[in-house]
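Appendix B, Record 12. Input sequence as logged:
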Amino acid sequence: MSVLNDLLVESKVFANREVLSPHYIPKKLIARDREINSIEKAIAPSLKGERGRNLFVYGKTGAGKTSCIKYVINEVNNIPNTRARISYVNCRIYNSRYRVFSKIISDHLPTYAKRGYGVVDLYEKLTGWIEEDGKTLIVVLDEIDVVKDLDNLIYALTRINSEIKAGGVSMVGISNTVSFKESLDPRSLSSLYETELVFTPYNANELFEILLDRSTTGLRPGAVNEDVLRYIAAAATKDGGDARFSLNVLSRAGEITEEKNSDRITLEDAQHAIKFAEDDIVYEVISTLPEHQKLVLYSIAMLTKSGGTYKKLTDGVDTYLFSGEVYSRYKSITESLKKEPKGERWYRKYLSELQMQGLIETFESGRGIRGHTKLIKLAYPADRTKEVLEKDLFGVNVR
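Logged structural output:
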């Protein structure tokens, strides 16, 4: 039998692979009732035709931010006779003011969107469309910090509210980085009038419940037992409470089981799957970082690979770097790219964000090592981290 025929045979492990995808939105989101209620309260005025507050949602990758927002969007779309209209925008794809406006127009005025108008024309058309019957537009900006001209976008969207007599615009911004707003122009910041919601990572019990729920419909009966699910949940908790990671592990484990022509996922299958999933998740996280965080991480990877300036700061397994030498390398690399390095205050924030993402670890050195300074350790292999960043930053092909 050919490989293609093998692939077309009904799976002994999977009942519905899509259910194990992190992009799948189940009918019930586990351990996120509080967050869903907060989102619903924030957009409720818009559903009644009033101007609601803008909402900014923060949290680590895999904390359920996008899933909860999409869950609420699905609820709103099922409400009859509401004047609210929603546009969900993936800012990694639509990463400029013009592209965001084009996406919104395409969602609601598709024939107009195809005519090749400029941003001013799109803005005026959108404003007129909102005002004609007093509708409220809710713009969901996922990975909002990726937008290149974010100040211009926020200013334009908030300005609509001051120009129209009926209807309005509300924004929902989703970001992994709590500090992204600090880079905004004060005028943009003052116009936001926002509510903030922080998603905390899932704990082991919550991840187990998520895996149990998904496996019930995603896998064949008896394909996995609870001990394996608890093992995966515990591993994902150590990785920062990432639901996407846990689902990726379960899906990978199912594939490994299939390759063995078995119908039951073992603990060993899960252990192998974790190694694959760790690579998948960490390098996906790296690709979503803002540019200057990538440059800081690249500096850490380069110094880790070379052993750093102070090679005695190694225990034979891990290399520890001085914060100061990392900052010097970051400045050097940034300047070589004809870019303006950020100051030390921003650099410290970048370290904090990278630590929050689980990409680095930082330690206070204590006394005896050049006074009191911060030590930095890369959390993942330097070679692979460096390769992924070179591809992302410089377009260098890897492997």
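The longest strand covers residues 168-175.
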